[in-house]
Write a structure and sequence with these properties.
The complex is a heterodimer of chains A (10) and B (212). Chain A is mostly loops and 10 residues long. In chain A, 0% of the residues lie in helices and 0% in strands. The chains are: A little secondary structure (10), B mainly alpha (212). At the A-B interface, loops of A face helix 1 and helix 3 of B.
Chain lengths: 10, 212
C-alpha cells in the first residue's frame, strides 16, 4: 500500500 | 536520491533564492504574483507537516525548513515590507478557483484517506497549478523582468527534472507514485509556452514580452 512507502521526496 | 532529483531540488532552491534576492535587493516585488507565493507557502505548509515527526535525512529536513522559511519570508516581504510595490491591479487571479477544486480532488483521489495523506495530496495538486496566478499576471502585463523569467525557468525546470527522476526510479527501484507523476506532468506542461519564450527570447538577451 502506498503509504508504507516513506515520502522521501521534497 | 539520484542526480535528477538532486538537480531538481537545487533548481527549486535556486528559484526560491532568486526571487527572494530580487525582492530584497531591488526592494520591489513588481511583476511578481503575491497570490502564487501565498499558494506556494500553502503547498509547503501542507506537505511538510511531517517535518518533525518523520525524519528522513539532514538534507531532507534542512531543505524543507529552507523552503518553508523562504516562502513565508517572500510572502512577508510582498505583503508587508514592500507592500507599496506590490502590483495588485495585475495580480487578480482568483485563488479560490484553484484551492477549492484542488481541495475537493484531494478528498476524492488519494492513496490513503488519512488527514496527513489528504493534506499531502492537496499540496501535490495545488503545486501543479500554483504558478497560474503568476503566468496570468505576466499575460496581463505582457512582459516580465529578466530576473523574474530566470526565476520561472528554474522553477519550471525543477518539476521537469523530477519527472526524469520518477522515470529513473521506476526503472531502477520499480517505485512510482501516480498522483505525484500526473500532477508533475500537468505542472510542467503549464510552463511549456513560457519555456519556449524563455529559450527563444531571454537566452538571446531580449526582454520577455508576450504577444499582446
Amino acid at each position: 500500500h502506498n503509504n508504507e512507502i516513506i515520502k522521501d521526496e521534497l | 536520491m539520484n542526480i535528477f532529483r538532486l538537480l531538481g531540488d537545487l533548481s527549486h532552491l535556486l528559484a526560491i533564492i532568486i526571487l527572494l534576492l530580487k525582492i530584497w535587493r531591488t526592494r520591489s516585488c513588481a511583476g511578481v504574483s503575491g497570490k502564487s507565493q501565498i499558494l506556494f507557502a500553502l503547498v509547503f505548509t501542507t506537505r511538510y507537516l511531517d517535518l518533525f515527526t518523520n525524519f528522513i535525512s539532514m538534507y531532507n529536513s534542512a531543505m524543507k525548513l529552507i523552503y518553508l522559511v523562504c516562502s513565508y519570508a517572500t510572502v512577508f516581504l510582498m505583503y508587508f515590507k514592500f507592500k507599496a510595490t506590490y502590483d495588485s491591479n495585475h495580480d487578480t487571479f482568483r485563488m479560490e478557483f484553484l484551492v477549492v477544486p484542488v481541495g475537493g480532488l484531494a478528498f476524492l483521489v488519494n492513496h490513503d484517506f488519512t488527514p496527513l495523506e489528504i493534506l499531502w495530496t492537496f499540496s501535490i495538486y495545488l503545486e501543479a497549478v500554483a504558478i497560474l496566478p503568476q503566468l496570468f499576471m505576466i499575460s496581463k502585463t505582457g512582459e516580465a523582468e529578466t530576473i523574474t523569467s530566470h526565476y520561472l525557468f528554474a522553477l519550471g525546470s525543477y518539476r521537469a527534472l523530477y519527472i526524469v527522476n520518477w522515470v529513473f526510479r521506476f526503472y531502477t527501484e520499480g517505485f512510482f507514485d501516480l498522483i505525484a507523476i500526473v500532477a508533475g506532468c500537468v505542472q510542467t506542461i503549464l510552463y511549456c509556452d513560457f519555456f519556449y519564450l524563455y529559450i527563444t527570447k531571454v537566452l538571446k538577451g531580449k526582454q520577455l514580452t508576450l504577444p499582446a
